[in-house]
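Fold it.
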Amino acid sequence: MKKAKYDVLEVSRHVINYSNRMGYGVSNLKLQKLLYFVQAYFLAFTESGTPCFKEKIEAWDFGPVVPEAYHEFKIYGGCNIPVIDSYFDFKEDGNPFLFEKKEYVDNIISKYDKKIIDDIVDQMAEYSATTLVNITHNQSPWCDAYVPYINNEITLNSIRSYFNTNR
């Protein structure tokens, strides 16, 4: 498997800011489904098949979830997440007191990849978070991984296989 291109929080920040700029808005629930479809597109429809982000997607009650992104934005509950202009970068040693506030500059993701991500967000904009949950609940990657109260991983291979088969 090829190394993923980005960190999911970079992709999330881009999706949130793009959604706000376009007037769509995005809740954490909808963000999770958008991340799933972004990852699916990169795996099944790009020439390289390289994952967009490195973090795992898990099968939760309300569909696919990337835990790192979920926990970062759960403070917003069911509301739309506002524009991200800065964020806290916590150091990896786990000490919650070691962090740096950073200005968000959307320059990590390539223009080509941003176009792909933006197109997916545009296509999904008309769907509510609940509709996207229902769609993912009818797809085998989530169905095969889901067990109540156990957050099993939805594997990249299951996502790639499903979307390659259902083109």
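The first helix runs from residue 8 to 21.
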